[in-house]
Amino acid sequence: MFAKKTIRDVELNGARALVRVDFNVPLEDGVVADDTRIRAALPTIRYLFEHGASVVLCSHLGRPKDGPDPKFSLAPVAKHLEALLGRPVDFVGALVGPQAEAAATGLRPGEALLLENTRFEPGETKNDPALAAALARLGTLYVNDAFGSAHRAHASTEGVARHLPAVAGFLMEKELTYLGKVMEAAEHPFVAILGGAKTSDKIGVVESLLRRADALLVGGGMGNTFLAARGVPMGDSLVEVEALDRARSLLDSAAAQLHLPLDVVVADAFRADASRRTVDLGEVPAGWRAMDIGPKTIAQFGEDLRSARLVVWNGPMGVFEMAPFAEGTYAVARALAESRATTIVGGGDSASAVARAGLADRMTHVSTGGGATLEFLEGKELPGVAALLDR
Ligand code: ADP
Ligand code: MG
Q1: pLDDT under 70 in the chain at which residues?
Q2: Ligand that lies nearest to the alpha carbon of residue 197, given by its number in the listed order
Q3: Quick check: is 306 catalytic?
Q4: Is 108 tagged catalytic?
Q5: Where are the domains of the chain?
């Protein structure tokens, strides 16, 4: 059940919508190098136009350190957005102030402008109330479509929502609907898959998913850490020592739910051209490291996924960036692609692995959030979501 109001629930005719988007895109030589995030905001922008609103867009881009820095200007994004929308998009070289206010109030229905990088203002990350109030003067309605920034209480994601009617855009709605299914454990069997490198960052997610999922499959660096916690010698594998205690206590309380690797592909160096072999548990040679899950594990995980109705996946099963160690990750991606389950993928590296496998459009939902997705799956309230009007 979607608990927040969206742009479908409010009067848009004649409204001036201040829309927080995620246009944090890579730039190369002043040109947008990957416009996935810009395209993702188009349905919301077009809907606002079609319903008689004008649109004032704002976003952060990168992490500028000390105020304005041309390297992080959103000007190239305005150009790119113009081409995608097929209509002019004014760029205002400021976030707030007289110039921004004049440009915003001058918009007619169906017109759009893009403001300068929110993080050029020191008040943004401090959630400065004065900056939030100044932003609020630019719209009659606030729309948050930047799920990936919703875990941060910044002026443009949280503070401003206190001053205007605040609703979700379509991208935000989609994220919360699918990730909400995970948190409600909406369908069973519900299988969660976790991997990747940041085990201590994700241990809260493990705990949260263990309360909801029927089975939790663990691979990648996280799998190494759980195996080590079980006493399996892991050689020089990536094992997070700080996470061992919590991993041990989860193994004690939820052993049956936790499915660990049965075999691993090991290498004698962290290199694509390293010597490699597949070994069973207990056979990782000293000085070698687990780089991927092995074929027995792939078969077992495939079996575990076969009957699933709901699957959430975060974290690659191995060092997929190196072709010899990508098979476990790609096999899981294929299993999800072929599954009839609702399949939800979160995490920057997991999303890029699915894209590399050419299977992104075979997933029900690939989340655009990194930290926000993890915090949501951990069960934390996201400030940028909490600030929106309840339905
Ligand atoms: P996500 O971005 O999807 O949340 P993470 O950032 O936690 O995922 O982890 C992704 C990284 O984990 C990848 O760069 C991958 O190479 C690395 N990784 C996965 N398995 C291993 C392993 N066995 N040893 C070392 N690194 C690993
Ligand atoms: Mg990552």
Answers
A1: 1
A2: 1
A3: no
A4: no
A5: 7-174, 185-377
